[in-house]
């Protein structure tokens, strides 16, 4: 496999080409484009400051929204919808576009009646109101939340034709919350307290067992995201944040924390959220999310529409174990790899935005990206994953994704050997 480690192999040529295209486009449009003339919105007053007390996107962006796959589940109250990754840029996901995953629908919780109880193997069982919790020291951290089943439909082959549907069970926001260790210290965890059971206030009574080492490390009890209160579908008024670990453990509508000396082996860590291997055995407690990446543009929902010439490729990379110091991209299905440009904040256990600018000659492309994380781990191919784990699982698929771009700029989800 040939390697080219030049980050920007044709930056000067690309910029020169882009400038030339821009000059030609400007000259042409100045002569013939009617849109350059005075438009209606330039001749009339717009809405006043109170027209939308809570701001909303432009109506011209109405197609940028979460979407579900109707046949994926039997009922929408125990289902998922997907973040439109192909329509976003940067690393922060707007609150209204963060994917949803529910096991019994959205709980509508009155914060004045909501309580968080800590009990079990503690010195002082405690019950907190929301007002109590907001008196504790708080921190702000940007983390990505990825469902363990993200890309799960792709284990047996290319299935869903869109970046939103193959990789959209992820979002990245700034959480404001209380370090979980402060609340556990207030209750006084005994030396025999090795595990923590988190329970939600939804009708499913969602529960997960969490090792005490993780609970005392970087977990948060969060009440805000991107500066405002959690949305109901994201756990309002209180949720657990378990950085770098599968989203099912980030219990929403958090109401109870029980300290124990062993895991509880509940439904979501036995019959669900385990990795069924080829021989029929199941890997359990595979909490960490491995390094992963995806090209968001071009992709099936974001084809190349401008024709040959200067083209910007962009995507996302992340790891549950740290940061992403490097992302490689290939235009020819892995024959030649080149290093992409990572732009914006590089935060641990958070999304990273990468770009690769190139001059497209109009020939077909096989686009892939490959993430390297700060532990030295390199994102594997799907073939490498299947050789180790088979195709029985639906969880923790972090294999390299391929988009085939045709000469007309359209893109399709494919696999190559």
TrEMBL record:
Its EC number is 1.8.2.1. GO terms for molecular function: sulfite dehydrogenase activity. Its cofactor is Mo-molybdopterin. Signal peptide: none annotated. PROSITE patterns: TAT (PS51318). The keyword Metal-binding applies. Keywords: Metal-binding, Molybdenum, Oxidoreductase. Gene3D superfamilies: 2.60.40.650, Oxidoreductase, molybdopterin-binding domain (3.90.420.10). CDD domains: bact_SoxC_Moco. Residues 103-264 form the Oxidoreductase molybdopterin-binding domain. It is an enzyme of class 1 (oxidoreductase). Transmembrane segments: none annotated. Residues 284-401 form the Moybdenum cofactor oxidoreductase dimerisation domain. NCBIfam families: sulfite_DH_soxC. PANTHER family: SULFITE OXIDASE, MITOCHONDRIAL, SULFITE REDUCTASE. This is Sulfite dehydrogenase.
